[in-house]
Amino acid sequence: MLSVETYQTITEAAGALGDRSRYIAGGTLVMRAVTYGDQRFDRIVRARQVDRTIGPDAAGLRIGAGSTMSDILASRDVEFLHTVAKLVGGPAIRNMATVGGNLFAPNPYGDFTVALLALDAQVVMANGQSESLESFLLGRDQVRGLVAAVTVPRIEPGSFRFKKVSRVKPKGISLMSIAVSLKRGDPRVVFGNMGPLPMRAKAAERALANGADETAIASACAVCTEGLQPADDSLATAWYRNEVAPVHLKRLLQNGGRS
Amino acid sequence: MSSIEFRKDLFADERDDTLKEIGKPTVRQDILGHVTGRTPYYDDHLFDGLLHMRAVRSPHHHAEIRSIDTSAAERMPGVRRVATAKDVPNNLNTLLSLINFGRDDEPLCAHTKVRYLGETVAWVIADTERQARDAVAAVRVDYAVLPHVLDVEEAIAPGAVVVNDIYPNNTFDYHEKYDHQKLRFGDVNAAFAQADHVIEADYQMSPIEQAPIETCGAIAAPETNDRFVCHTNTQALFFSLGTTAKLLDMASSRLHFIGGTAGGGFGGKVDSIVEPTAVLGAVLTGRPVKFAWDRYEEMQVGAPRGGERWRLKDGVMNDGRIIAREFTGFFDSGAYMRLSPYAIIKGTGHLPGPYTIPNVASNVYCCVTNRTPATAMRGFGITAVDFAIECQMDRVAEAVGMNPVELRILNAYRDGDMKAHRRKAKNTALIECCQVAASKANWPISANAVAQSSLSAGGQGERGIIPESATDEEGRIGERRQGRVPETSPSKSPTGRVPAGTHVEATVGVPVQNPDMQIDADRIGHKMGAVQTAPAAPVPPSPARVPAPTSAQPISPVAPPPVAPPPSATPPVATSPVATPPPPPDAPAPYQPDQPFNRGVKRPGRSPFTSGFRRR
Amino acid sequence: MAKTALTFTLNDAEAAVFVDPGAPLIDVLRRGVGDLTPKHGCGQGACGACTVLINGQAHLSCLTLAESVEGKTVETTAGLAGGPNLHALQDAFIEGFAAQCGFCTTGMLMAAKALLDANPNPSRTDVIEAISGNLCRCTGYEPIVDAVLSAAARLQGRTA
């Protein structure tokens, strides 16, 4: 039988998490599972005080895990993430869905996490520990504890690009999403929905290591699907995804994603 | 606002132009309710003590049910009742049995095997929806998984898995004779031999879910007077009422159905599944019960417009005239028949599209597969073949190097032309549509094409008569499964010919309703007398044989047009090939009205809607 | 089953109700307090038929844990009209034929109200974006977008 436990802080809530429990933030994932009778959990844990602050910190920018997509859109400190947040759901979803929750969103959701991975974000847990988003994602199904915030290193202006490929506009779930950070010497190319988790296209990153001129873009696109594991689903086949991924990456690198 | 342009210059003398509302803004009579949220949808009726019913569904496409263990579910908190197939009094139906079409093939709840993914195998009724879901997860079903077939052509190949013994060839039986619906008009094979080009192509349409925003659902509750009220969003209230009465073996007079307000339907709310289920729940618990599909069920279990595959073959002359068109069509009916066999009859009447083609042949198969059963959707029976036809027209235009709009105008039907279903075309307007569309799209067409009219040259000479037609008897029921009919396309070697001007075959009347629809008086709660003596208005005398058909007054075509009666599967439809003697005297004399059974409303003595005699 | 007491403001009135653990707000609104205007279309945030305003912002009531609105303000279509007078959005929807089956309409109205409350003078693109989380299967979106723009003009004392 379902129960709901409400705590004051996320630290207390984190302490209450255990088997057959889920922490609820915006509700867009957990309430859907509740309504559809998910039998894997029956305790819902929530906290009254959630961190929705967004602002600079020593490492760059800190985004409280309870920040909603609308909070992102309202913050001038993370303007480079506005294009990403605006592509998550419709307005009502953006008023609910949180950055922390997005880290756990399965395909075809989780576009914001794709961007954070390209930005080399760090995940800060409620107990103060932190780890890179890349390693966090690998173990996200076994996560114990609660995410308190994510931090994003400062970025060079114009070095971050994002594209969500969707059949329905302005709001449709993504067939794939692509985030690119053209940080000098350490570029990142991340695909969403091209594998069970957001995945780095490391071969493409190597091709872009010395800049993103036409030759580098061409070679990056040629190898961008190496190591990715797209699946067939109701939106598209794996074959189709592999075919169009280089096309969308090329547009993103050449002109910021306009078709 | 969208702009509407009325082309009153077209066909002006055919119209008494007294339109008062069309073309002017108007206020919907129901919109005040919509914008205030007061429109009462079925779920907006509140009942104290409402219980929630959920289905246990098959995770397999095709499997034998070895056993169902509901004991754990029955002990779950809030659970009032777990029901299975044995709780359904008359657990076999086909939707169109209410208009006497097809064989009962579908249980409300699977009992021996499941035939599609998501088929119902049991239900749980509990205090809350969540409790019902939790208990559904606790029902243990032991399945023996069977091989399945998901493709229409694989389904009708020899040796294919039999989905349902009631249709052992995985096809609907047409006219008690063939495993497909035939259309023969002229002689396509002879015409292909004369054609400058023969153009063949396959077209396919995937299933399409109607996806109304409000999913299918119903609330049923015991009323006073031993009746049950059912609030439903059905698009077919009397279908749902009659189906519920039949499945639950309950007098229709004990059912009080309230509907008329649906949050979208588009054809997806005619299948009458949630209503008998909710009423069953109310009967079993004596409490108000809601049964509604969630979005996943609406998409997976809710019947879509079925997938179709069409193979078209056109014989075309260098000047663009299409002299022959052959169709081989496959409807994916899914695991059960529902409305698809009827859609094929309707669709066949539509062939070869809005064109005048002197030689047309078609074989259309209604195939049973292990997919979700298909049902109606806008343009039911017509949409996929129209898609195929219009794609094919573009291919033909390309093959002969012709402007595709001019090709359409050249081949367009005109008033007075004989259509392949042996009715003369009237009120045709394809030419004018093409002309206006070309002009709006700035698509150049020749002066000659601009000069054409639907009102001229139609019906002249051979355009107006039924041609001499080649016939065959290929594809009799069961032959394909035995490997004796390898081809699915219309026969390459016809065995018969019928003279020009004749109708080949005529369906005479309709037989009595299925035995299960012979309603005894107590089922409707008041005495009406025996079936044989019932009609106060006597059954019109049966004509000894069909009047000799004439081209001026067609009786019934090979493929009945949409308004013609759907031929029944049981008992046999009496068919009499023209120019053969009348049926032998010992043949059962079916009910033979002088007018074809038309939409079921003029049939004396019985109401096809309420599955009983009409009250007098 | 242990129920939780919940109080919140619903369309300018206090609402107090006991809720089942884990119940979504839409169930509490519809069956708990009898406000039938939010519609249940998908239960997964895809259709927007259950859109309500919480503290003035559009939310999906099917994905909102009922307990989370404790002490907050919830607005639904039931509170849109001011007494006998319809809201400008409602008038515009009526005149613009912006509903067919009506099932998406209440959600559309609330999504549109959230927009107009925040941005009284929206562009067509703003309107399309604002209702992008709300699906309509009948009328198409054009008359709805037109109606929202017309309502905005009306509220500004302009004619569209």
Notes on the protein architecture:
The complex is a heterotrimer of chains A (259), B (616) and C (160). With 259 residues, chain A is an alpha+beta fold. Helix content of chain A is 32%, strand content 22%. In chain A, the strands form 3 sheets. In chain A, strands 4-5-8-6-7 form a 5-stranded antiparallel sheet. Chain A is globular. The model of chain A has no long low-confidence stretch (mean pLDDT 95). Helix content of chain B is 19%, strand content 19%. Chain B is built from 14 helices and 21 strands. In chain B, helix 6 (237-247) crosses helix 7 (274-285) and helix 11 (404-411) runs antiparallel to helix 12 (430-440). The mean pLDDT of chain C is 95. By secondary structure, chain C is α+β, with helices and mostly antiparallel strands. In chain C, strands 2-1-5-3-4 form a 5-stranded mixed sheet, with helices on both faces. Chain C has 5 helices and 5 strands; from the N terminus they run ββαβββαααα. The chains are: A alpha+beta (259), B alpha+beta (616), C alpha+beta (160). The A-C interface holds A 1-4, 6, 24, 26-28, 30-32, 34-36, 44, 46, 70, 89-93, 95-96, 170-171 and C 1-2, 4, 20-22, 24, 43-45, 48, 51, 54, 57-60, 62-65, 67-68, 111, 114-115, 128-134.
